[in-house]
Backbone:
């Protein structure tokens, strides 16, 4: 009975004060956990509705809820909304005079407010402490909790002192923490710093199913963007550039080419920016070119694509910007045009970033190394051959399947090859040259390039000089990428990005194991036409039998060669085999994931199975 009553109370409050009929995903469970007296850490994307998760229980629990929030504007918004909904709430921050604060706290003592927002600095003031020690605090909520972590993006040292505040209270309230972005590390910091006790941890809703993700490694970015826009003339979209100059250049280029474009960056007057923003929101211009200054508070729902002309500085930035596509739930595309030069631009931008005086020397060091790390992860996103959606979701701490089946990597045809010798040569080359050079020079050396730089550094005398000239540049880069990804090499975090050996490097030289790399069959990725190839889920009953046969064959081939089955062929390849039923080598080459090498190695075996099945069919 109790339970029913509680549920009724919850829904009633939801409706009465917030005007909603139902909870959004994740909300109800968090509310329940708080009401049961358990600490909570909730990681939910922006706009998911975190406020409600603590405001609703605040109304149902006896006592006051104190909410720590980092920004005055955020507090004001929330308090205004609450008061309008008929909930007594107040904020205490530096926008009030001492007198006003005293008065608010007087009222608070009389039990006037259910919810009080405070800036973290406030907690330590004697006046607030005095209040908190004499009031009945039901809950302490820490909003934007990532500010607690030096590994987070907006580290606020004063958040670290929330713990002290709790220690001083006569009775420990329930503690709940909320944030939109928290990597594993940041989450650990939040849990530790707030000393959450057996907390209920919820990570929900980062996946945006309607978004298609793609990374393109291209040289001619302008040309690529132009052809994209040509193919999407009817659509509204945003193109992000790293710098103002980039925005201006691309703007002139596209305007000259006859597209309906606007621009937005911090170098424009505020009137020009507002005008430009409105043009975009009211669809008077289709496409907005902007730096990351654009987008806050923009809730244009029909953005069909977000293109990145440059790689952003972090996955946090990327996902927030890309996430502005498809708010209406309709299909939308997020394409990142990557070139290694982007890393250089971003390093420069990070180096010249002004840091506020809030940090100590030590904190500053950590913050800078964190920026470098985030940039590095961003680069990994741009160069991975794995599922992009998986990468994103894992980054934000959410579990995700290995393959989404619908990002550019999942849709691409990958070839696998054993690059053991090349990998060993790379290690030898780095070692012999004293680990003093970056990736490009090592590639040049291994390919046997005859350039002034190589001669100057006498890299042409390196025993590995020219050793991998046959492999070619793209594959050699892929080998190095894989070595970096698997920890056989590392890059220094400074601007020089020197290649260094790791404790694993040496072992690779003597390893008998194959070193698998995967690479794209076609050099340049096809544009974002989503090839609809059969997936295992769509097979007919008859195909399914063959599919199972092929699976067994694959397992057998894999065992014989001592490799994992997916190296032999992916499920997608098997499904496509069932669909296309190839009879010849040429036809087999048409099958998704079947390259020359694969056909050479396994072609006959697969063809035989397919022929067998076809023959049975005729009987
Ligand atoms: P967050 O803090 O997670 O970014 P907010 O708490 O500011 O998000 O909520 C975003 C929006 O979602 C607000 O306009 C809020 O009123 C709305 N919202 C929250 N919960 C619900 C719900 N259960 N039903 C409908 N709208 C909701
Ligand atoms: Mg919020």
Residues:
């Amino acid at each position: 009975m109790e339970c029913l009553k509680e549920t009724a109370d919850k829904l009633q409050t939801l409706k009465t004060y917030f005007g909603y009929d139902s909870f959004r995903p994740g909300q109800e469970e968090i509310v329940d956990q708080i009401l049961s007296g358990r600490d909570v850490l909730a990681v939910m994307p922006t706009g998911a509705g975190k406020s409600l998760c603590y405001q609703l229980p605040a109304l149902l629990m006896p006592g006051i809820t104190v909410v720590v929030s980092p920004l005055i504007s955020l507090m004001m918004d929330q308090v205004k909304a609450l008061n309008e909904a008929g909930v007594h709430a107040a904020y205490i921050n530096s926008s009030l005079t001492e007198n006003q604060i005293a008065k608010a706290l007087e009222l608070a003592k009389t039990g006037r407010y259910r919810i009080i927002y405070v800036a973290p600095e406030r907690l330590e003031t004697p006046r607030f402490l005095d209040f908190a020690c004499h009031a009945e605090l039901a809950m302490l909520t820490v909003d934007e909790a990532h500010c607690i972590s030096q590994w987070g993006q907006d580290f606020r040292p004063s958040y670290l002192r929330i713990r002290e505040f709790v220690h001083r209270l006569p009775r420990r309230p329930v503690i709940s923490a909320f944030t939109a972005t928290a990597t594993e590390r940041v989450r650990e910091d939040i849990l530790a710093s707030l000393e959450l006790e057996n907390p209920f941890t919820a990570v929900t809703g980062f996946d945006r199913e309607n978004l298609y993700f793609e990374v393109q490694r291209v040289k001619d970015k302008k040309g690529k963007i132009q052809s994209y826009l040509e193919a999407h003339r009817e659509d509204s979209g945003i193109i992000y550039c790293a710098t103002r100059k980039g925005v201006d250049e691309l703007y002139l280029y596209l305007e000259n080419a006859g597209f309906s474009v606007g621009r937005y960056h911090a170098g424009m007057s505020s009137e020009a920016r507002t005008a430009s923003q409105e043009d975009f929101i009211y669809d008077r211009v289709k496409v907005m070119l902007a730096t990351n200054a654009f987008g806050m508070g923009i809730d244009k729902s029909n953005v069909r694509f977000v293109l990145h002309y440059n790689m952003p500085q972090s996955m946090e930035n990327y996902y927030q910007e890309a996430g502005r596509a498809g708010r209406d739930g309709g299909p939308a595309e997020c394409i990142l045009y990557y070139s290694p030069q982007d890393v250089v631009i971003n390093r420069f931008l990070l180096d010249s970033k002004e840091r506020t005086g809030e940090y100590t020397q030590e904190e500053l060091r950590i913050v800078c190394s964190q920026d470098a790390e985030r940039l590095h992860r961003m680069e990994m996103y741009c160069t991975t051959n794995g599922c992009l959606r998986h990468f994103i979701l894992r980054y934000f701490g959410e579990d995700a399947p290995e393959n989404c089946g619908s990002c550019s990597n999942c849709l691409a045809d990958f070839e696998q090859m054993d690059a053991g010798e090349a990998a060993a040569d790379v290690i030898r080359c780095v070692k012999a040259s004293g680990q003093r050079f970056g990736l490009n020079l090592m590639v040049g050396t291994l390919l046997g390039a005859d350039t002034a730089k190589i001669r100057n550094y006498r890299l042409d005398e390196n025993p590995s000089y020219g050793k991998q000239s046959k492999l070619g540049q793209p594959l050699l880069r892929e080998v190095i990428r894989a070595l970096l990804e698997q920890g056989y090499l590392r890059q220094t975090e400074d601007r020089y990005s020197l290649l260094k050996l790791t404790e694993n490097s040496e072992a690779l030289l003597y390893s008998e194991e194959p070193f698998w790399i995967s690479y794209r069959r076609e050099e340049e990725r096809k544009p974002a036409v989503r090839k609809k190839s059969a997936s295992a889920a769509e097979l007919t009953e008859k195909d399914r039998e063959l599919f199972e046969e092929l699976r067994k064959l694959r397992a057998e081939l894999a065992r014989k060669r001592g490799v994992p089955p997916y190296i032999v062929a992916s499920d997608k390849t098997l499904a496509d085999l069932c669909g296309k039923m190839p009879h010849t080598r040429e036809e087999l080459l048409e099958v998704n994931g079947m390259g020359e090498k694969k056909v050479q190695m396994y072609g006959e075996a697969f063809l035989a199975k397919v022929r067998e099945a076809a023959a049975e069919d005729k009987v």
